[in-house]
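Listing S7. Sequence submitted for prediction.
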Amino acid sequence: MQPRTGEIERQSEASASRDSVVPPAIALLDDDPAILRSMGRLLRGEGFDVLPFTSPSLFLSQVASLEPVCAVIDLSMPELSGLDVQRVLAERGLICPMVFVTGHGDIPTSVQAMRDGAVDFLTKPFNAEELLRALERACATGRDARALDARLAQLRQRVGSLTERERQVFEQVVAGLLNKQIAANLAISEKTVKVHRGRVMRKMAVRSVAQLVRAAEQIGIQGTPT
């Protein structure tokens, strides 16, 4: 079974505008060149940057450097299955939300794919609207995931800029301790605690203790009461 290539091609008209000046890069992985060409025409017409692959190993060797916002992947391929590709990306910690396509309505496999993070699962023959709707969700998921990843990296960098004493104060502040309790725990004056606390707030780019606590939670830092 194959997608309705004629229908896809007839509906591949350029969109009037895109959300960004730089078009989103969509990776296409399918061992059938005809399907790749058909989907490629549609997505280029919709303003996407298309990265086609017929080989899972080639896709896996380049995905980290190309950083597609998401991918459309055939479930059944002779070299590696779509689930194998999904597993390898997860093991590498790479962000690439997936839309799976298959010629077989295999419910257990689709459930497994979705459980492992797939955004959608399309059964061939699918039409252009189905694919574009799935990609809209996948692109949104990819953008959100990358934004969160960048945010967490920034927070970790800010924590790394703290001195040892500032880190100690930071952990006790997010544990809910008062300045006088922190001073007693660290054998320093309350005035010194206030100075370190102010530096922590500036370096972490937060304005309140609540924001500081949320930042700590996001990167998995547990406040220490002593």
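Caption to Listing S7: primary sequence and predicted structure tokens for the chain studied. Confidence is low (pLDDT under 50) at residues 5-20. Residues 32 and 202 are 55 Å apart (CA to CA).
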